[in-house]
Amino acid sequence: MSYEQTLVLVIAAATMLIALPFIFRWHRGLRDRETAGRLGYGFQGRIPADFYLQLQAFELLHGAQEQDVYNLLFRVEGNRQYAVFSVDVGHIHRETISRNLRVFFAAGEDFTLPRFRLRPKNLGHRIDREPDINFPQDPVFSRRFLLQGYPEEAVRALFHPRFRGYLRTLREVELESRQNRLIVTHPRRIPISRLVREGEEIVRLIAEDPGIQ
To answer: Which stretches of the chain are DSSP H helices?
Structure first.
């Protein structure tokens, strides 16, 4: 094989490697659009700038740039806004987020939440003895999840027994709130339909608290 032929092959291979993420994102967009239609959600490939601004306060999405958030599924129901989107890059606990992480988002003017973050406990959390809101009457929940937030009394009221019971059935779920906004995700990517089902059920259970209407 001549030098020129080798060079052509190298350039072709490099071009393919560069193009693969864009091809993958395009193909995923087609599937996500179809899924949005089945779920009764709207769809757009790129997120609006004002929606991205709502995401910047979340620790879970720290490091994600506007171009890293895409394939937005959205629905408005009464005064609530629901959305699902994909995130390609970012950082969680100093580690790179797995590509194609999907996030469920809920917001509403009357959806006032105490600030909290819930994540699965790992050995590091137990060794470091990070501050944790525990429920002595629910040791299984307290062993499985690290719950942090304030004011503590409001967080405890929000995580009522039915809510905790549902969260115990989910694997590796993570939640984070900011005023009237909530995100739900998993460290590993799951089907959109399942994420929507879980996210909407979490919102419904949160609304069972008389203080959160």
So the answer is: 3-39, 49-55, 123-128, 139-144, 152-158, 161-168, 192-206
